[in-house]
Amino acid sequence: xxxxxxxxxxxxxxxxxxxxxxxxVPLAANGQKLDDRVTRIERLLESGALTDMANQQEQxxxxxxxxxxxxxxxxxxxxxxxxxQHDLYLDTDRRLQQLxxxxxxxxxxxxAPGGTNATSTSGPAxxxxxxxxxxxxxxxxxxxxxxxxxxxxxxxHPQGEYAANALYWLGESHYVVRDFPNALTYFQRVLSEHxxxxxxxxxxxxxxxxxxxxxxxxxxxxxxxxxxxxYPNTSAAALAEQRLQRLPAR
Length: 250
Description:
Blueprint: H1 2-11, H2 15-24, H3 34-47, H4 49-101, H5 124-139, H6 143-156, H7 163-175, H8 180-193, H9 200-213, H10 217-230, H11 235-246
Helix pairs in contact: 1-3, 2-4, 5-6, 6-7, 7-8, 8-9, 9-10, 9-11, 10-11
């Protein structure tokens, strides 16, 4: 009996092995000798089956840990994406509400490239009606329709009173659907073609936002700092500061 107990002790040196043995070896039927059970266990150990099972269990555990890590990374990416999307819609909605609250007469910047007054080839009433039609599409969320409307407006009134505004909202119509390359083009045109426009602070801000969305963190930081420096005490400067706080540390 003593020899049998020694054999049992030898074959169950770890907690893992004991657990595996209990799973593999069934309980003995009434009358089965203890020595026979130990012999069966020893054969299993000698065959390497239990070792293979232990190795497989460890591999599965590691694979599960890797998957859990990947799931956590995906969850973080989704959280950040949802936050950016939320900020995007809040920002666009805020701007639309501000503009909607103003009277139509106050919408245009009254300046053309170089800061001088300019007129379009058609009458002011036609220009305003065409602009408002495109803007109504933007407010309604019909972004493709708004894009086409603003593009047509700029073809008909390239240096009209609403040209800077049309360029800016054309950029917004691309930005809101995450078409960042085209959005960047139109925001930059506001800055280059209408430097004296009241839309310049917002356009510069959005250029910084676009670079952030595209992963150009250094350039985004530079542009957002520029907004704060060149346009202090403005809503654009406040939004620039908010976005700067979200950028990764240098």
